[in-house]
Amino acid sequence: MTRTRIIVILVSALSMSLLACREIYEPTIDIKSNALVVQGLITDQPGPHYIKLTTTIPFNSGQTSVPVVGAQVSVDDDQGATYIFNEFYPGEYRSSEDMIGMNGRIYTLNIHTQDGYSYKSSPQTLLPSIDISSIKSEIAIKNEVSEDEFGNLVLNEIQGISAILQTEEDYENNPMIRFKSEIIVQYVYPSGEAPPEGPGPLWYCWKIYEQAEGINNINLPTIDNIPGNISNTIVAFVPRKSNKYYSLPWDRLIQGLLLNISVYTINQTSYQYYYDVIKQINSDESLFSPIPSQINSNMKCVNDPNKIVVGHFEASSKISFGFIVRERFYPEDVHFELTNKLDSIPPSNCIDNVKPDFWVNN
Amino acid sequence: MSIPFGPRRTFIFFLFLFSQNFISQIVFSQESKKPILQLLLELQQMHSQKILYNTIWFEGDSASENILFLPISEALDTMLSDQNMDVVSFQKNLIIVPKESVTLSPEEMQDSRQVVGNPIKFGKYSKATVSGKVVDGETAEPLIGAIIYIENLAQGTSTNVNGEYSIELPVGEHLLKLSYIGYGESFHPIRLLSPGVLNLEIFERSHALESVSIYAKREDLNISQTQMSVVRIDAKSIRLLPTSLGETDVIKSITLMPGVQSVGEFGSGFNVRGGSADQNLILIEGVPLFNSSHLFGLTSLVNPDMVSSITLIKAGIPAKYGERASSVMDIRIGGGNEGKFRVNGGVGLLNSRLSIETPLPGKKGYFLIGGRSTYSNWLLNKLPNEDLMNSSALFYDINGLINLPLNSNHSITIFGYTSYDSFSLSDNIDYNYANNLASFRLAGHLSSKLLSNLTLGHSSYNYGMDNNNTINPINANRFQSGITYNSLKWNLNYYRIPSHAMEFGINTIIYGIDPGKTIPIGIQSTVNQSSLEKEQALEVALYIGNTIEFTEEFSADMGLRLSQFFKLGPGTSRIYNNDFPMSVVSIIKSQNYGKNEIMAYHIGLEPRLGLRYQLNPSSSIKLSYNRGNQYVNLISTTAISTPSDIWYLSNKHHSPTLIDQLALGFFKNFSNNTIESSIELYYKNLQNVLETKNNAQILMNTLLEADLIACNGYSYGLELYFKKISGNLTGWISYTFSHSMRKTSSIHTEEQINANVFFPSNFDSPHNLVLNSNLNLSRRWRVGASFTYNTGRPITLPELSYNINGHQLIHYSDRNQYRLPDYHRLDLSLSYDGSLRLTKKWKSYWTISVINVYSRKNIQSIYYEKTTPSPMNNYQKYSLYKLTIIGRPLPTLTYNFTF
């Protein structure tokens, strides 16, 4: 027997054996019913404030979550006041417009569902807002990994502008913040072409992109600071005008970019919750990664302490900034211009031949 | 990647001058030796007792001269314990014979004497002629000139050209000694009734005689010794252990013993009686090994050809041992063939090994060196699987030992070991780690009754992960971490009187831990270089132990160990608000410490007790108790040891792990100690066992103490063990029923696991069954089989998923609420000995083995991956995967040689 043949036989024998096997694992889970999911937020801004109730689904079941309707929802403060939330949409409850959270007050969410269970949050202190002196703009490149049409991972470089928080106050203990940004892309349909609803010379359209919600949206701890410094925290990233990035057909003309930034000053419980969410979402999935475990909720079932409830009730102070993103390519200049036109922008839409009030020409 | 070594610390101690030249009794340590042949002569003179033996068996072998102080039977047992020999008592003589030749008790021997002649004619003759033929047992060829001799009659004869013989003897019982040049001697007891025929076979010397019936006294150490819960394996038995990937794996073989398990198909480390892997102190020549496996459990770090003995103590741990809470594994290297040059090796499909042992010039002392390496990379590159083709696996280990007698009473032993492992699974992450060990031991007699061993030791373990993110090179980074250990241990044995021995000493250990640093890889990487604060600590222990034989039946080992632990600066210690759980936001202030300032101090008194009551020569009852403190723990978020685990020192926030263990056992031997059996019960109480909080990240965590929770718990179990140690079929069966539970007790929800209710530890496996056997099919062929069954280990699984702001999140079960499917596997091996002739220089044997004969897909680990939601995966963003390492039969072929 030749040496080559021997090697082929040995390699073949081993190859049949050494194929470490990776398979989907579908264990039998012992779970009797779905749990309540709470998403609640009240701030120091005028209402209404919203509480959203849905249910969990069994892992890998393929089911869809259902809203929890007909619940009695209210928020109590430590001064004895009670604020009722009424259902305006299946599973979504809102307060009156005159409900305003007060700095230093302690709020507790109460929920009573139709199946007879009562839920209560731990008391949440609404902390005063941090002082933000400005938000700086800086040209930046963000790297994003995506899959191409063949399923291969590719690295995309996205040119854009970072929005960087600036504070002048020197904090002994870094406050905890959460931030959320929306990019409003203003674009027009050329004359002669129209969105599906009828003809018109020009359509003014806008599309809202919510950014960084739930991912790395807090001042994360660093080696030297826990939590991290808030000054120089990047709170948003605005990709430069690019139809491809904003998923617009090639012939739409982008007329401007607006940026709406909200910064919430949160308490320790909320900070820990969002940090746990980030860790679960960002787990690196390598062979030896620990199994991520529970994100603790600040909600508990009153009449059955063993009943699962997930989600979070947050009480925080909020500061919002609206910016017009001004940019020129030649010579290159980019900066944010403060505007108050973004206080109430309706959901994404188009208007026939009428420029909306918040429209800004860039 | 370079593996940095930690800082080295040296000590200068005052050494006593040795001036005396007396011999003393041996209990635990290595001491001066004499050639066995000389010792046998001296024993005969001292005790006026004739001892018969073949001098060729003991040429070049040596044993401790302290046996001269023991009763002759005990002296012979001790001297021959690793010689595979037994002692026969016959007609006031003692005869040393090969162990396998002895099978029967005196009563059985009486009945097994070969009857020569016609029983009907018994009484008609006062003398009768015995005649017959002597042939080669293998070829049936008649042997010319074979000697038949009867010692007590001083009478003998030899065979003629046809192999025939004839001799006239008095009627009655005789012992015929048969010998032939180049062949092994044999003894044949006969009962001569009348003239008759007796045909005899004789075999070449290296073959163990199969059918000689002689009474012999076997080892009964498991009955007579006070130490219980112990597993001992000597060099000659190692070869008979089950093979893994074609070679003997001494540490994996230990996991086939009751009360010892491993986690997963291939897992680094092992678990003793429900304890974690870091609770086992693995010593090689007195220096600890921090990672005992190559390639995450593929094979153990210890070269089996270099090992002379392994002792694992699971309970009743003697006072000289500390540092870890659950067990001690003491591995000794080589040194069994003074005066002989020997080469051992093996060539396999995945790895090979070679070791060389040689006496030093003048035959004073010896030197041995050995190494192993794998070459699986070339094989992986040829496999038709993309993942495996892009993977790599490499390891090597080299170790050496030199023993130098300074004079007749003192000797120096120097040991060194280095190993390196590198492994990647095509996921862009390269894992690598290295072990380095060294020891220097000075042994000698301070007086006729006082024996001293002074050992300087060093051990370091460094590991790292290279994340070569080729898709997003800005994230490419390297993580490194490590631990160093430097020690000075002085152990003294005092043999006050034969029934009372004392052992005492001092251990001093300096720990150094580098918890981790991150370094960017490549010019595109934007990862910031950062490192965590290094840590150091000093552990000092004083101990004393007494071994007393109150009566023949009752003996006791009593000991006390006092350990002290100092966590030293430089470093930073944080003070937390006690009204809140430890977290980033409950820090009140930080306190900085200078070099060698005491940051934390712990002290522990550790009593040790072992009692034995011998009911009769074949059975005894034993009881033991020991307490142990463990000041350094391995923090892991997974059940299997991984490179992402971190060594962690006790400090102000976390007291040392404390274990109290009580064990009771009944030991019984049968058939002249050829069958051993035992029943052992144990109970362990655990305090301050560290578990990680939910969502804990242990790598590069500046506040690791805030992510750890001290748990209490208990383990208990029943171990049944049954072992046959002689005959063509040998092996053992063991069954263990056990539980290992943990519980938190914090008032803060964030520091509770499962709401402070008891939960199974990662090593809770209620049922464990092992069947291991070896069968000699013939003199050359041997087949082995090993079957293992374990209850599946506990795991935490996702139960529910939900959506928050467009992100899918998972809600998990209580910790360890579920279990993996049960683990079971059958391995088979076949060995063929190439040559049995003692005079032949080159000896070899082939081993072919098949692991996982019936393709059991045992789950090694469960892990998560993010996926693109699609109809195929029910639109889930997470999928749960199970990893099986060996899902099909794995054959290996190894050629082993020695010369």
Provide a descriptive summary of the structure in words.
With 362 residues, chain A is mainly beta. Chain A has two helices and 20 strands. Chain A has helices at residues 3-17, 268-281, and strands at residues 21-24, 36-43, 50-55, 57-58, 72-77, 82-89, 92-94, 106-112, 118-121, 124-125, 134-147, 153-166, 177-189, 203-211, 234-239, 253-265, 299-301, 309-328, 333-339, 349-352. Chain A has a 15-stranded mixed β-sheet that branches. A three-stranded antiparallel β-sheet of chain A has the order 11-12-15, with no helix packed on it. The radius of gyration of chain A is 25 Å and the shape is globular. The mean pLDDT of chain A is 80. Chain B has 899 residues and is mainly beta. Chain B contains eight helices and 59 strands. In chain B, the strands form 14 sheets. Chain B has a 22-stranded antiparallel barrel. A five-stranded mixed β-sheet of chain B has the order 6-12-11-8-9, with no helix packed on it. Chain B is globular. Mean pLDDT of chain B is 81; it is low at 1-30, 101-111 and 206-218. At the A-B interface, helix 1, strand 1, strand 4, strand 11 and strand 12 of A face strand 52, strand 53, strand 57, strand 58 and strand 59 of B. Strand 4 of chain A pairs antiparallel with strand 52 (798-804) of chain B.
